[in-house]
Known about the structure:
The chain is mainly alpha-helical.
Amino acid sequence: MRTSIPARVGQYTALLAYLVFLAFPFLWLVSTAFKPPRELGSLHPTWIPEHPTLANFRQAFDEQPLLHAALNSLLAALAAAVVAVLIATPMAYVVARRRTRLAKAVTGWVVVSQAFPFVLLIIPLFLVLKNLRMIDSVPGLVLVYVVWALPFALWMLAGYVRAVPPELEEAAAVDGAGRVRTLVSVTAPLLAPGIVATALFAFITAWNEFFFALVLLKTPEKQTLPVVLTHFIGAEGVADLGPLAAAAFLATLPSLVVFAIIQRRITGGMLTGAVKS
C-alpha cells in the first residue's frame, strides 16, 4: 500500500522531532564545554559561544585525573566485552541448536532478567565479591559487568546462530568434525557481524556504567570515568559547570566514535540475527 502524502509528512515530522529531542542534550553539552564563565552565568544563554575557549578543558584535566580514570574505564569495558562474548558464543550455540525445555527455560530467564533493576542486584553481587575478596578492584568490577552483559549477549547471539543454515554444520559433521570444531571453524566465522555488534554493545554499556562502579570502587585511583565526573559537583550540589561539561563531552566521544565506525555492520548484523533461516 502506498502511503499518502499527509501521512508521509507526519512520519518525517515525527522523526525530525525525535532526532531533535535526542540531539539537544549533546549539542547543549558541546556548547557549554566551550563557553567562558561569564557566558555560563548569563541570563540569556546562546547556542553558539560568543567567545569560545579551551579553558574548561584545561581546568578539567588540572582538577581531576581524567586520563587515569579513562584508562580504568577502557580496561574494564574491553575486558567485560571480550569475556562476555567468549562465554556467550558457545552458550548461544547450545541454546539455538538444542530445542529442549532447558534451552527454552534459559531463553525465558534471559528475557525476564533484563527487567531486574540495578538496586536488586547490587546487594547479592556485593556479597559475592566480598567473599571472593574482589571489592574495590577493577577485576571485580569486570566480573559484575560480565554478569550484567551476559543475558543480553546470549539473547542477541542466539538470534545470529539461528540465522546460520544448519546444513553447513551437518556437512561438517559428515566430514568428521565434532561440535567444538564445527563451532570454531564453521559457525563462528559466520557470526562475525553478530559478535562485533554484541561486543560493541557490551563495551558501550560498561564504558557508560555508573552505579556499580560507584558502589564497588572506593579507592580514587581505581575509579572509572563516570564516577570521576561526579567530583565536579561540590558538597552542596553546586556543579562546576564548565569543566564538568568539558569532561562529559570527552567521556562521550569514545562511544560515539566507535559506534560511528562500525554502525553499518551493527545494523546489518542485527537485521540478520532477527531473521530465522
